[in-house]
Amino acid sequence: MSEYYYSGKFGIERETLRVDSQGRLARTAHPFGDDEHITRDFCENQMELVTPVAGSIREALGYLAELDERARKKLAENRESIWLYSNPPHFDSEDEIPIADFTGDLSSKRAYREVLKKKYGKKLMLFSGIHFNFSFPDELLHELNTDNEDFRAFKDELYLRLYKQLMLHSYLLVLLTAASPYYDASLDKDGKSGIIMSEYSSLRNSKRGYWNKFLPILDHRDLRTFTGSIKKHIVTGSLYSASELYLPIRLKPKGVNSLENLAANGVDHIELRMFDLDPSAPLGIDGRDLEFVHLLILYLLSLPDIDFTPDLQEKAVSEHKNAARLDPDAELLERAESVIKEMEKHFGDNEKAIEIISFEKEKISGRKVCNRVKYYK
Question: What's the rounded Cα separation, in Å, for the pair 56 and 115?
Answer without folding.
Answer: 37
